[in-house]
Amino acid sequence: MTMSERSRGLAAGALAALVLAGASLAGCERGGPQAPSGGLPVVTTKSGVRMVLVPEGWFVMGGGDPGQTDEPPHRVHVSAYYLDIYEVPQAEYEKVAGANPSRWKDPRAPVEQIRWADAVRYCNARSRLEGLRPAYREGTWECDAAAPGYRLPTEAEWEYAARAGTTTRYCFGQGAADLKEYAWFKGNCDRRPQAVGTRRPNPWGLYDMYGNVWEWCHDFYQEDYYPESPERDPRGPATGQTRVLRGGCWNSRAEQCRSSYRNDENPGYTDVCFGRDVHGFVGFRCARSAGPARLPR
Questions:
Q1: Of the ranges 69-73, 233-237, 288-292, which one carries the lowest mean pLDDT score?
Q2: What region does 188 belong to: left with phi over 0, alpha with psi -120 to 50, or beta?
Q3: What share of the chain has pLDDT > 90, as a percent?
Q4: b/e string for 130-158 if b means 16 or more Cβ within 10 A?
Q5: 151, 155, 135, 134: which is closest to 82 by C-alpha?
Q6: Among 29, 164, 281, 296, which is disulfide-ready with 204 (CB 3.0 to 4.6 Å)?
Q7: Which option is the CATH number for 1-297: 3.90.1580.10, 3.40.50.1110, 3.40.50.2000, 1.10.390.10?
Q8: Where is average pLDDT lowest: 102-116, 130-144, 278-292?
Q9: 142-143 vs 214-220, strand pairing mode
Q10: Distance of CA 244 to CAs 156, 183, 195, 265, Å?
Q11: Would residue 97 be called left, alpha or beta, if left means φ above 0 and alpha means ψ between -120 and 50 degrees?
Q12: Domain segments of the chain as ranges
């Protein structure tokens, strides 16, 4: 499997203290414990998946290491949305999609070897399971971000959630010494994905934002997209050859697990690629648009 990999670095800017406002999630029931480390509202969907309500806010997206061209820092506003607490595990994927394509079968581990279209088909199937209008138009895979159904997070939404109010390379600091506490990656894994939620969550109560499996985002990838990106709710370029991957995987170096690290892959890569360990494997988590829930500027 051929993945283009690029190094990036430190994000600038700062976020103000977190202030939560009420919000509702049609088709979901509030339940279960609140995320202990972040205090973001947690909901349990009709199909039994736990999500956090990520409030709208501003952040500085991208890094700033010299010579890294595809993640220049820029200010972005993200509207409120819901995001799965965990990468989609194999048991959940099989329940909704009726199949499990993963190489290493484990109901608790994240589903892997997933094409981009597999991920958005799952989003639509999960939407229909809960009686929601799907976000994706099958065939063209155009996304209606205002639809009540599930979708993949945008690249901006993914990074905003991974940073969880921080401005350093990782959500826990500038260096990678503590990455083993938060991620399954090349420095601590036994050469396969691990059960979701078995490392520490980030400050917003989200697990495995670093490592375990690469995560598909909605956006097409474009190396020089950031300078032309809109300030509010960017959704990536209109067309492209590859889609964005974020977060690193169990076989990734620490550098590839940074909050701002960008990667990409052909959305329809072939089965022969799935047999190679060198680049790890690909999974995803779901997002869903929400009403107002604000962070101060």
A1: 288-292
A2: alpha
A3: 76
A4: bebebbbeeeeeebeeebbbbbbbbbbbb
A5: 151
A6: 164
A7: 3.90.1580.10
A8: 278-292
A9: unpaired
A10: 11, 20, 24, 7
A11: alpha
A12: 1-297
Integer Cα distance of 175 and 80 in angstroms: 29
**Over 80: is that where the pLDDT of 295 sits?**
no
As a whole number, mean pLDDT of residues 162-189 equals 97
From CA 197, how far away is CA 213, in angstroms rounded? 12
Cβ atoms of 263 and 244 closer than 8 Å:
yes
DSSP string spanning 140-209?
Answer: TTEE-TTSSS-BPPPHHHHHHHHHTT--SSBTTBSSSTTHHHH---TTT--SS---TT-S---TTS---S
DSSP code, position 43: E
Residue 44 forms beta bridges with which residues?
29, 50
Give the Cα separation of 288 and 229 in Å (integer).
21
- The letter for the amino acid at 165 is G
The model's pTM is 0.86
Residue 168 tokens read as: 């350093």
The tokens describing 167, both together, are 């401005």
